[in-house]
Design a protein that fits this description.
single chain; 8 helices; 361 residues; six-stranded antiparallel β-barrel; five-stranded parallel sheet
């Protein structure tokens, strides 16, 4: 029987390297690909960053591919990355929302663009080193299943994948813990066995989003007023792109008690601050919905939901409130419900679906 061909997205890290090795061991015809998406800076910056797609990533991935005996290519996806990730990231901050560029990159670049190009060269699947599993359910739909290791589970950032994308994706790492993955890499002498995990957003290696946005757009972001919910001016902010809902540190306000960012108003250039109590809400409204384990929400459904990547999750009732809108009503108030972030719904260990948060009411 002819071997199934799989294109593995190789970031130069240990997870995608072991994913490629595992698939080769399982008998697939494996091709390694690193996606060139923004790497133009000098080598030294990339080496310091060591991010998921830096120049050093290409060299590490190339070495791993040679070690496990698979063909390896670098594919250019700079245009897709600029259109779907960087431009989106910049625009969301300027609109007072807090984007999640990894979710956009997963959906539109790592999957949509890479899958199309892989199919064009005769591949049956693409694969990544994400900590998640894919199952085909009894209802015929594909859904993400949380990974074996809860601490590293990455299903939150993948909730937006389509049925077509899931049907043509393999995620071999989801059955293992991080320690097991590193041990496997050591056993087969992969040089990246102890390479640190990438941190931060890959195209903002120093974490200074505001400076990146000003440099990228050429716009100087204007300062404005910090106000309380009743409109009282309590100070000056540096520009709305410096803040996110829920933020407490770095506000530079001395009001005699802790205050949190409650809302960002681009139309008046105001940042609304208030107490911890004011930052809590039981309601999350979201749009740009993607359903996964079910085709739709037919009736109000009790689900476990996460409102940010590192949120431990909480129980809520999710219901449809419009053609492209859901409302989640949590049992207990949740802190810092942030427009622009994702709310992801879980039915037991499966991703039921999710959407982009638009309001906390």
């Amino acid at each position: 029987m002819e071997k199934k061909k799989v294109v593995v997205g190789m970031s130069g890290g240990v997870d995608s390297s072991v994913a490629a090795w595992l698939l080769k061991e399982q008998g697939y015809d494996v091709v390694g690909v690193t996606m060139q998406i923004w790497q133009d800076e000098e080598e030294i910056i990339q080496e310091e960053n060591g991010g998921c797609c830096g120049l050093s990533a290409v060299e590490d991935a190339r070495r791993v591919a040679a070690a496990i005996g698979i063909p390896y290519y670098v594919m250019n996806f700079k245009k897709e990355f600029k259109d779907y990730v960087i431009d989106y990231f910049v625009n969301e901050y300027k609109e007072g929302r807090t984007p999640n560029p990894c979710i956009a990159c997963n959906r539109y670049v790592k999957w949509e663009a890479l899958l199309k190009r892989s199919m064009d060269i005769g591949a049956d699947y693409i694969a990544t080193g994400h900590y998640a599993k894919i199952d085909k359910l009894e209802n015929g739909r594909y859904a993400l299943h949380t990974s074996t290791t809860g601490a590293k589970d990455q299903t939150y950032a993948l909730y937006n994948l389509t049925q077509e994308q899931l049907a043509h994706t393999l995620m071999p790492v989801g059955d293992y813990t991080k320690d097991e993955i590193r041990a496997m890499a050591s056993e087969v002498a992969l040089q990246v066995a102890h390479k640190p995990d990438s941190q931060d957003i890959c195209f903002v290696p120093n974490g200074d989003y505001a400076s990146f946005i000003e440099e990228y757009t050429g716009d100087k972001i204007s300062p404005g007023n910090f106000v309380t919910s009743d409109g009282t001016v309590v100070g000056q902010h540096k520009g709305i792109i410096h803040y996110t809902v829920g933020q407490r540190k770095g506000l530079g306000l001395s009001l005699g008690h802790p205050v949190f960012v409650l809302e960002i108003r681009p139309e008046t250039n105001e940042v609304v601050v208030g107490s911890n109590e004011e930052s809590m809400s039981r309601y999350v409204r979201a749009n740009k919905i993607n359903f996964m384990s079910v085709a739709d929400l037919k009736e109000p459904t009790r689900v476990w939901a996460k409102i940010r990547y590192n949120h431990k999750g909480a129980w809520c009732i999710a219901e449809r409130t419009g053609e492209d809108e859901i409302l989640c009503t949590f049992d207990e108030p949740q802190r810092a419900i942030t427009p622009g972030q994702a709310v992801v719904l879980y039915d037991n260990d499966y991703v039921l679906g999710g959407g982009t948060i638009i309001a906390d009411k």
